[in-house]
Amino acid sequence: MKFLQSLNGRPLRVWGLAALVAWLIFQVTRLALLGHSVMLSEQAPAGLLGGVAMGMLRDLPVVLMLAWPWAMFELIFKRKWADRLRWPLWTIYVFTLIFVGVSEGVFWDEFSVRFNFIAVDYLVFTTEVIGNIRESYPVGKIVAALAAFTLLIVWALRRPLRNAVAAESGRASQLVWALSLMLAVCFIGYKLPLPEFFTNSFANELADNGWRSFIAAARQNKLDYRQFYATRPDAEVMADLQRFSGHGQVSASNTGLLKASHAPSKQPNVVVIMMESMSAEYMETFGNKQGITPNLDRLAKEGLLFTRLYATGTRTVRGLEALSAALPPQPGAAVVRWPNITNLNTLGSTLAARGWEPNFIYGGYGMFDNMNSYFESQAYKVTDRKLFQEGLVQFENVWGVADEHLFDQVLINMDKDVAAGKHVFAHIMTTSNHRPFTYPDGRIDIPSPAKREGGVKYADYAIGRFFEMAKQKPWFDNTIFLIVADHCASSSGKTKIPVFRYHIPAIIYAPKLVVPKQVDTLASQIDLVPTLLAMLGLEGDDHFVGRDILKMPPEEGRALLSTYQNVGYLKGDLMTVLQPKRKIETFRISADGKEAQLVPNEQKMTDEAIAYFQGAALLMEKHGESGRGSGR
């Protein structure tokens, strides 16, 4: 421990020791994440070492930020109180550093990134998150082990800390150090940019620091498109957006007058089943050999299958946004998370104007991610786990009830509404294919709790069971079902927007109404809303940005993808990525979507990309200006 006691032969001060300990723990954390990337994400070590080296420098402002309170501690407290408080606070400090490092490992295992806006959200929705952690990991044993390890580290550091205390000088000198640290943090941490130096996203994440990324995400949970991204004249953007949508008007507000189409007695029910984290790669239809989705594969053969459909994002709220408002993804938080958004142009409002009864049915607590508030504000009738029929739920975990119980509630709701003469539109959100992957025993041949394969197979079992029961209902033959994922199970990849991590299944199933077919046109999640409306005979009644996939020329197919800060426009094998600071890059995407080669920007692609994403921002601005975005 001698190297912890002095630097260049001079004894460390307390803040210096605190800084050095933090820096060392950051390096251990980074090496652990490097090992995870190499062994589990199959990344080449040589491509990541630059990120590791860069990260050692990027840690400095965070290290100084963590050291500054120790300089203030020694300055403010008199020796008597400082001696009493120093060891307990030092123990808490070391434990916090270790705990955050382990937490970063858990988060990386799930998302392959440093802390981001998802981690910020997790601190808001503590019930689900803490419950999920408790059900997924032996928390008590982990915390006990971390506490024991902390005590061991503190004991090992007892002499360096004593020497550091002895090295403290007069208050004038301590004040100079405290002010110097504060200025250094402000200058290095806020004035100097932190660009992405590497084309490999894993390397960029390794070069970052979890403390820094968390603070940045907390400060930037909503991004103003005009301020940060490339723009074009508004009039040109809106003209292009109307042309791309295939009709004369697009809108964020529900202001359109719907034409008469179906007679009320012939209106089919519409059921959208959004499956949690159901990546296309899990289905045999798309090449999987594990046999974990037999029911989905059967439905894909018997229904209308979209083989090249891509999610707009990597979170449930993005999927909900796409399948309700059909808006291109915007940087920052999804519209579902925005407060006080009312009377938005949604699939539910469009159908409600023609006599359907909109419902949102969720297996979890709808307060999570603002789901209940969002859908209630759009005039959906909301049913979450709190409102399920008493005695119905026999199995649940922190994220939600078992999918089979969710579907049982759906059947109850639909029976009741149909019996009352209503035409039902139900948007259903499942939860079982989510960590901790627990489900009722005896349903599938993978025991619970399980890994992802178990969650996928149980979710497939539940949907198969649902359709077997639904087929016995008198309303089944007059119901159109859309089965689609909210997003993929993983968002990790080597590129800024790893295309293969956005490929999701989408199946329209209605044996008496829809002819089985395979559609290979490249399409976006937002296109499913106009496609459904066109199938219902309501083509032209909507004002959405998406297009009817069935009438879209294959050469005009495109997908809209997003991370938190980057938005991508995929057309053919090219993807244009719009980034903060008005940066634009274009990549040639490999056939499997896993590789991306940087190529020169193409003006036509750039203009189209800006039209979609700037256009979405303009629609929401106009929505707010109309007064329809004000409080309920």
From TrEMBL:
Sites where the protein binds substrate: 434
NAD in keyword set: no
SUPFAM superfamilies, sorted: Alkaline phosphatase-like
Family matches, as Gene3D superfamilies: 3.30.1120.80, Alkaline Phosphatase, subunit A
Sulfatase N-terminal domain mapped to chain residues: 268-537
InterPro entries membership: Alkaline_phosphatase_core_sf, LtaS-like, OpgB/LTA_synthase_biosynth, Sulfatase_N
Source domain of life: Bacteria
Active site (UniProt): 316
Protein name (Swiss-Prot/TrEMBL): LTA synthase family protein
Residues holding Mn(2+): 276, 316, 486-487
Gene Ontology molecular functions: metal ion binding
Membrane topology per record: Multi-pass membrane protein
Gene Ontology CC annotations of this record: plasma membrane
Bilayer-spanning residue ranges: 12-40, 60-77, 89-108, 139-157, 169-190
One Pfam family of this chain: Sulfatase
Keywords: Cell membrane, Manganese, Membrane, Metal-binding, Transmembrane, Transmembrane helix
Places the protein is found: Cell membrane
